[in-house]
Amino acid sequence: MSSMKLAKSWHEILKDEIEKSYIQSLKSFLEDEGAKGEVYPPEPYIFHAFRMTPYEDVKVVIMGQDPYHGLGQAHGMSFSVPDGVTPPPSLKNIFKELEQDVKIPPPETGCLTCWAKQGVLLLNATLTVRKKEPKSHYGRGWEEFTDAVIQKLSEREDPMVFLLWGRSAMEKCACLQGHRRHIVLTAPHPSPFSAHNGFFGCQHFSKANSYLEKWGKSPIDWSIKK
Fold first, then answer.
1. pLDDT in tens, 63-97
2. Span 195-220, pLDDT tens digits
3. For residue 117, what are the CA distances in angstroms to 35, 49, 208?
4. CA nearest neighbour of 146 among 82, 50, 81
């Protein structure tokens, strides 16, 4: 794995974390994994979310688990797929809630880059995965790295919205509960197994924008364009 390729602001804020020994162990692990088989997303996209959404621009964080493990699906942003790739079931359910909440019809693409460029950090707890093996890179160091990311965000005075869908996302961001400025919105995961238990109808998109506007920030345009 090549050197960390973070946006300048992220590199500055995480420079002490990047120097820790577990990062070197993680790099060695990824090099070994890459030599043995396919790892997703492709290396240039591992830190894609951080390049698309610099630290100072973050308004909303959508917390995911680990990358999609199917061919061509993962490109470094939680729930997003590259343009031209069929949206997986969870993303389709996100689009259903988007239509119900803010009247945006299902888009032609599952690529959420337009959200990221507006300040929506699409963060996964684990940033890589072995082909067709979900959670195969858990416990290798990524969680420690993304814990540091969440901690740095939590320390920011500038208000943000955290959208936590599913138990793992809520546990990952437990440090945010009771924060005096950031708002934490929780719901079941948008997976077909749990979306009907409260994800549908959570109205997180409109609630996020209401909170941003309360603090004088421009709302997110949740429409998805190619």
1. 999 999 999 999 999 999 999 999 999 999 999 99
2. 999 999 999 999 999 999 999 999 99
3. 33, 10, 16
4. 50
Going by the DSSP 8-state scheme, the letter that residue 133 receives in this structure is B
Does the active-site annotation cover 83? Answer: no
* pTM (two decimals): 0.96
Of the residues 16, 32, 57, 66, only one is catalytic, namely 66
For residue 155, how many other CB atoms are within 10 A of its CB?
A: 9
Is-contact 168 140, C-beta < 8 A? no
Dihedrals φ, ψ of 124, to 5°?
A: -100, 150
CA-based nearest residue to 205, from 80, 59, 56, 73 = 59
| Alpha helix positions (H), the chain | 8-13, 15-18, 21-36, 48-52, 89-102, 113-116, 142-154, 167-172, 204-214
Residue type, 175: C
